[in-house]
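Dear colleagues,

As part of the handover before I leave the project, I'm documenting each prediction I ran so the next person doesn't have to rerun anything. This entry is a single chain, and its sequence is reproduced below.
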Amino acid sequence: MSGHTPLMSLTPRGAAFLGASLALFSAGILRIDGPLISLGLVGLIVLAIVFVIGRWNLSNLKIDLQAPARIFADTPMDLRLSLENHRSLFDTYGIDIQLDLSNGTHIHTHVKWAAAGSSATSKLRGSIPNRGAVSNPPCLLSSGFPLNIFTYQKRISIRLEILVFPKALLPREFFASGEFDDAWHGEGFQTGNAPGEPRGLRPFRPGDPAKRLHWPATIRSLARGRAPRVREFDPPGIRPRKAAVIFHSFGTDGALIRTDLFERALSLLCGTLRHLRSIGVHATFTSDFLAWKSLPSFQFSAWSEALTVLACAQRAGDTEAHNLVATILETPPEDALVIISDMPPAAWSHILPDRKVLIVDIQQHNYGKRDMNFKMAPVKSSH
């Protein structure tokens, strides 16, 4: 962590105090009035003392921030921010801390007091709304102590690395009856004892597992003197053994390129890969921003690498139709095929070759950009 010399500016109160002191001193000189000169000098001496104390108040301070190294966007996380006073004498008072993270998001907190040789800790909880990499974010310390005559600021940088993955959104096409099944043909598998689609509620039968109990309905049923209620599911369906997920930014109708749609498409891609992994389908994804290279996503190490790629992805601006068509034709026909784009399907679906495919519509979700919202717990000072 590196620090810089504190910057100083006069507050309105300080400007008024300085003006009054100079006026008294000047009037005393003109009128040869000892008391006025003394009052003016006392005011100037007070300003000098406040200036020295204020600069000393920001010296030898360090910031320690403990945060998760990897998180999903818009997912709550806990932070622990500590202001460390490394002076052997002189406590520090009234420090405002502003930490600037990526995409104009900020953390604000206030430390009332930190004793010499100790630290004050703030516990924060909030979320980062946008994906990306946060590296050594700048931090601004400011204070008006004492008397709020001067405002002092000091900029430092914190050693911190946070990788923010896209928010995982599951496309609604996976909830539509039969749409995913129509995206492949060939041999599949059943995932053991995993349930299929929910069918409804029925009375409890001997042998039903307790985790299937639907407690609100059970309470109402018992109140009427009836048997408990359990959830009933259809038998597990057949799932493809492998799936190919293709992401592209190609369009032919001159549709407007929007950054928010690209971010939304990445979230849908992340949600798709996570869903396929959760149901046991070995999925690979290919994208134009990877120069049409394929990456696996099923094994833990491959999933971690895929998330890292998505966190740092940048939109490709030179996608050609023949590249997209060639990638689709290279996909084995027995694999499920899912295509996601940040352009509307009407701008590219007509060039697809004749084969089974699940098209994810980018216009299905509508969620706005959220500001960072960190709530501060009471500050604790440790010795």
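The first helix runs from residue 12 to 31. The chain has four domains: 9-55, 61-166, 172-190+239-364, 198-233.

All the best with the project,
I.
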